[in-house]
Amino acid sequence: MSLSNDAKSIGRDLEADLSKLADAFFDNLQIDNCEFGGLGVDCKRPFGNSDAEGDILEIIGVKEPHYRDEYTRYASDLYHQGLIPYLRKRWADKK
C-alpha cells in the first residue's frame, strides 16, 4: 500500500501530517560545533526516545488510545518514506 492509501485507511490527512512533521523538523534545526558549524537536526529531537513512532503520532495529533499497529506503521512510513520527499517538493525543488 502507498503512504497516501495508508493515511486514508486510518482517517489521516497526509499533507497535514507531513506539514506538522516538517514544522517539528525545522523547529529542531541547529548549528553544530564541528568545524565551521554545519546545519543539522539533533538526532534526539524531535523524537529520540525509545518510542519514536509515539512521538511522531503525538506531533501529528494522534491521541494515545489510537496507537495501534497501523498507526505506528503509518508514523514510521511518514518519517522514513514521506518527510524528505515532502521537504524537497516544498522547499528544495523551487528553482
Q: Would you write up a description of this structure?
A:
This protein has 95 residues and is mainly alpha-helical. It has one domain (3-92). It has 4 helices and 2 strands. It has a two-stranded antiparallel sheet with strand order 1-2.
List the helices and strands and how they pair.
Elements: H1 3-9, H2 14-27, E1 29-31, E2 39-41, H3 52-59, H4 69-92
Antiparallel strand pairs: 1-2
Estimated share of beta-strand residues: 5-15%
Helix content: 55-70%
SSE class: mainly alpha
Number of domains: 1
Globally, the shape reads: globular
What kind of oligomer do you see?
Answer: single chain
> Can you list the strand order of the major beta sheet?
1-2
The strand count comes to: 2
User: Any idea what the radius of gyration is?
Assistant: 14 Å
Briefly say what this structure is:
The protein has 95 residues and is mainly α. The chain has helices at 3-9, 14-27, 52-59, 69-92, and strands spanning 29-31, 39-41.
